[in-house]
Amino acid sequence: GLNTSIFSAVYASLLRPLPFSEPDELMIVLESQPDIERLAVPYPNYLDYKAENTSFETLGAMSVAGMTVTGLGNPEHLLVELHSHDLLPAFGVEPALGRAFLPEEDAPSGARAVLLQHSFWTRRFASDPDVVGQKLTIDSNEWTIVGVMPEGFKTLFPCELLIPLGTRAAEPLFRDRAARPEVYLIGRLKDGVSEAQARADLLAISDGLAQRFPEEHGASRPLLRPLQEELAEPLRGGLLLLLAAVTCVLLIAASNVANLMLERAMTRQKEMLVRAALGSGRWRLIRQLLVESVLLAMIGGAAGLLLALWGVDLLVAMGPRTLGGLSGPLTINGPVLLYTLVVALGTGLLFGLWPALYASRQDLSQALKESDHHASAGASRLRARGLLVVGEVALAVALLIVAVLSIRGLNQAHQVELGFEPQRLLMAGLSATPVPDAPPATAMQFWDEALRNVLAIPGVEAAGWSATAPLVTDQLEQFLPPGVEASPENMRSAITYLVSPGFIETLDVPLLAGRTFGSQDVAGTTPGLIVDQEFADAFFPDQNPIGQRVRDKLSGLPSVEIIGVVGHVRQAGADAPEKIPYQMYYAFAQLPETSQQQVRLIFIHMVVRFTGSIEDIIEPLRSAVAAADPTQPVFALGPYSDHVDRSLMARRSIGGLLGLFAALALVLAVIGLSAVMGNVVVQRTHELGVRIALGAQPRAVVGLVIRQGMTLVGAGIAIGMLGAYALSRTIATLMPGSVDETDLTSYLAVALGLGVIGLAATYLPARRATRVDPMVALRQG
User: Fold this and answer.
1) How far apart are CA 303 and CA 560, in angstroms?
2) How far apart are CA 244 and CA 734, in angstroms?
3) Which pLDDT does position 392 carry in this prediction?
4) Using an 8 Å Cβ cutoff, are 250 and 3 in contact?
């Protein structure tokens, strides 16, 4: 059941083909720079890649925007996907109702057309079949509904509306080749074109762009990957780890069954000898025993399927929202049933073969001798069972160590210094475009008025807004490090926060030098730059960074002056490696209008530091924003700590399941060890009786049995520790920062704990050995 549940997640997230036509031909195109592995593609680059490539049958593009829907009751802010008109043909998908976008709609002057996601259609239009042709007000403009997407259709973003990408093409953010408005390219390869050929094609186009636009294109290079691989990457390491862990549990359970079957094989050996004497061949006997073994495994597999139905629901409840990917929800489908059948069949054959071979031996004289004097038979059988126990203990130790490493890593992630204080901090989303087609200064009037109203709420200590926020969204901007030659290859990237006065103080980010932004940093004043400690230490290690100048792209100046240094904040996640080490802060109001228009604004994050109860703040905050503009919704409203927890959700799920599997593995291994040691006492009854008859003390008898059991435990612990080290190194590669494979404390703690548990598991059988009646034992011998 556990194996089936985990494999259902592996199949849905990593193996199941995407729900598009010929999904293996779908590629995603990104870009990379010397210091950044993955970047979205500038819109002008998309147009060049599309026009000049010879490898793609269709090359479409998508982006994402935050927009407000009105006229259907309360205003609602939604994520909206922007599609080029050829993107749906690239996917091989058609609307369930209506039509797709026309080429003439995919242009700045095109008619405003919108496609509804199936969920939005059912929620907001009650599945009205006549919805096509109706009007929908988005950002105060009327859009015509041209179709409804099929149920379950989704791509890269959890969006409910689709609009033509070309309608944004005239905006500065999309016109600027150096800007990155979150555009992703999806292409379908032509027949006969390989991934390598397409990659070479795009590289040639990129080289031409670098020659024509050396400053804007710079050192950017195209990055081509199969779409399914790119989407599966974030989940791959964790799911493969869980599959390996649950396989260990299966092997331990199967070893226990094999031990039982080996014992049963001994009791049936005379039966097999009689059958052999009557003419049954050995392979016929083996076949009979294997059929029994496989039948038992298949019954277990059938019962496991019933448990898997519950297990899948548990995984969905515990796992991240991306579990299953674009291919749909977790289900017990045909491939999962086939996997369960293969696992059950393989387990029955693998762990039933050894007992079958043992029971079907046809050396009649030797077998009869062993059945009469079963010391050698018992010894050989105990060696076999001992090997199984060693394997069980090794698997349990490896799994326990990995689980402990994972849980310790999760605890360390909870304790990591975020650089800001998320407790008693509230975050709310505001529209980035409250007045469509208006300059950013107009939108800023709304944000600032809403901020002033929020600051007047009783219980609010501080508040501010930003275009990006730690652990939530990011914005990358380039700068030229001091003292290096100006060239595209020397440009570096920094996480960039475009903020209001008060944002840094509200997050409680420590000020280390200089000052933060204040009421004097308004439109028309010279932009200043605040950097984090990592930036200051890297580029001004022996100087005071205050007053130093940095060449950047946003300030509109030849260089911008550093006015403050603040602490570093975690951006990627509480447990994720920081791929971009540097951070810069600008006062949004100080930036020239051209720069304001060239930054990507999905929505504005308002942060509020409060006292008292959060419930006392939420409704007054909604009213404060409504007082600034009653048509604007407040969304994504909740404690900032929720974003910290969300960043650890996948790790928490993996750690919890690993702990569960490790505990189960430990219980099964202890059961197996106790059973074998109990059988040791039974098999050595004659020997122990002789020892007691000759005057052996009970303590010596107990020690004899415990030594034998602890030899098995010790061998399993040693092998398991080596296996755990190898496995944890692999995990550290697949999931950087998740485990510390050199954490000796965890290894020793598990080894000591298993040793104590193993000692307890062997002690009870050892005590039974002291109660052997010498006379009875001698008569049995």
Assistant:
1) 68
2) 13
3) 78
4) yes
Phi, psi of 543 (to 5 degrees): -130, 160
Instruction: Return d(Cα 531, Cα 534) in angstroms, integer.
Output: 8
Show the tokens assigned to 242: 């869980």
Residues 478 and 488: their CA atoms lie apart, in Å, by 10
Classify strands 56-70 and 135-138 as parallel, antiparallel or unpaired.
antiparallel
Cα of 116 vs its chain's centroid, Å: 29
Q: Strand 221-226 relative to strand 26-33: parallel, antiparallel, unpaired?
A: antiparallel
Q: Which one-letter DSSP state was computed for residue 179? A: -
| Cβ neighbours of residue 758 closer than 8 Å, sequence gap 6 or more | 393, 670, 673, 709, 710, 712, 713
Write the CB contacts of 350 (distance below 8 Å, at least 6 apart in sequence): 254
Cβ(634)–Cβ(430) below 8 Å: yes
SS3 content of the chain, % helix, strand, coil (to 5): 55, 15, 30
* Mean pLDDT per 10-residue section of the chain, whose length is 781 residues: 78 82 92 86 94 94 90 88 94 94 92 95 94 93 94 87 92 81 91 94 94 86 92 81 81 75 65 64 70 77 77 70 65 80 77 65 52 48 70 83 80 77 93 81 93 95 94 86 83 92 96 95 94 95 93 90 94 70 94 86 92 92 93 91 80 78 79 69 57 62 72 85 84 71 83 82 66 56 50
Residue 765 has a pLDDT of 67
Nearest 5°: phi and psi at 511? Answer: -90, 120
Instruction: Please report, for the chain, the start and end positions of each structural domain, with discontinuous segments joined by +.
Output: 35-218, 381-415+656-781, 425-647
Q: For the chain, what is the largest distance between any 2 Cα atoms, rounded to a whole number of angstroms?
A: 106
- Identity of the residue numbered 259: N
Structure token digits, residue 546? 């205050």
Extract the tokens encoding 446.
């709304």
Give the separation between CA 296 and CA 305, rounded to whole angstroms.
15
With the C-alpha atoms ordered 323, 328, 333, 337, is the resulting torsion angle positive or negative? negative
- Look-up of token digits 């052999």: 276
Residues in the chain: 781
What Rg value do the Cα atoms of the chain yield, rounded?
Answer: 34
Letter for the amino acid at 376?
S
**DSSP states along 241-283:** HHHHHHHHHHHHHHHHHHHHHHHHHHHTHHHHHHHHHTT--HH
Which stretches of 171-220 are assigned E, i.e. beta strand?
Answer: 184-189
- In one letter, which amino acid is 19? P
Burial of 265 (0-12, 13-18, 19+ CB in 10 A): buried
- Residue 68, CA atoms < 13 Å, CB-side half-sphere: 24
